[in-house]
């Protein structure tokens, strides 16, 4: 591991377009509040069909919220997805399966279970899935559904939080504050580094994402070390 880190320390940011930061295809947006947004950024980032992710604050009326003063906003993840690869209904299944939606305790507004829809079809799908879950939970569901409003990106240190824990790798990928919110590579690695996404998918992604040998080996070792460890914030 130390040998790999020394390699990264001596690497300069890439000067070519080999890394797949940008994916230029038609996408749709989805926005979910699922508690702490760090783990959700990793979860959705490695999901096939999800192109970009960013975390931030939404669902309220407070102007220009920030982490220490969210007002009536909620921590959310906003993602761009390819509807030809993954459906909104699939994303809703992930939403319900991967967070606490208020069965046993009242949630703080900051961590509210929340679906913000961007079009009528999303509203219909969200409300339909809500009814199913409400029946399963004997009417104790506390998830809110509302139209998407202004989205305020969270501070830079929250974006791809797990990936940013590997500073030399980030430097070698040429990531700046903008790319942390827009890069496809960043979204993927933010999940692989904590051991999710599956080894088969990761190995298939190495070439597609444009990782060089040293970058791939570093991420592979981290993936294997953390696989099965869960996604606690």
TrEMBL record:
Keywords: Oxidoreductase. It holds the Pfam family MsrA_helical. Residues 29-170 form the Peptide methionine sulphoxide reductase MsrA domain. GO terms for molecular function: peptide-methionine (S)-S-oxide reductase activity. It comes from Pieris macdunnoughi. Residues 174-220 form the Selenoprotein methionine sulfoxide reductase A helical domain. SUPFAM superfamilies: Peptide methionine sulfoxide reductase. Signal peptide: none annotated. This is peptide-methionine (S)-S-oxide reductase. Its EC number is 1.8.4.11. It is an enzyme of class 1 (oxidoreductase).
């Amino acid at each position: 591991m130390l040998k790999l880190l020394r390699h990264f320390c001596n690497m300069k940011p890439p000067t070519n377009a080999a890394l797949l930061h940008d994916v230029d295809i038609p996408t749709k947006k989805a926005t979910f509040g699922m508690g702490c947004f760090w783990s959700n950024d990793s979860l959705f980032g490695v999901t096939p069909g999800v192109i970009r992710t960013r975390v931030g604050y939404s669902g309220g009326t407070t102007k220009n919220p920030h982490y220490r003063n969210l007002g009536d906003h909620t921590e959310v993840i906003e993602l761009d997805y390819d509807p030809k690869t993954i459906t909104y209904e699939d994303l809703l299944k992930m939403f319900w399966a991967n967070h606490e939606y208020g069965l046993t305790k009242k949630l703080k507004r900051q961590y509210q279970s929340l679906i913000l829809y961007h079009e009528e079809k999303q509203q219909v799908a969200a409300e339909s899935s809500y009814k199913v879950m409400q029946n399963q939970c004997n009417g104790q569901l506390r998830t809110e559904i509302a139209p998407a409003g202004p989205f305020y990106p969270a501070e830079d240190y929250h974006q791809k939080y797990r990936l940013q824990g590997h500073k030399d790798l980030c430097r070698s990928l040429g990531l700046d504050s903008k790319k942390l919110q827009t890069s496809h590579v960043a979204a993927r690695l933010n999940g692989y580094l904590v051991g999710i996404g599956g080894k088969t998918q990761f190995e298939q992604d190495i070439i597609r994402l444009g990782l060089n040998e040293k970058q791939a080996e570093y991420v592979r070792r981290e993936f294997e070390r953390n696989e099965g460890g869960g996604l606690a914030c």
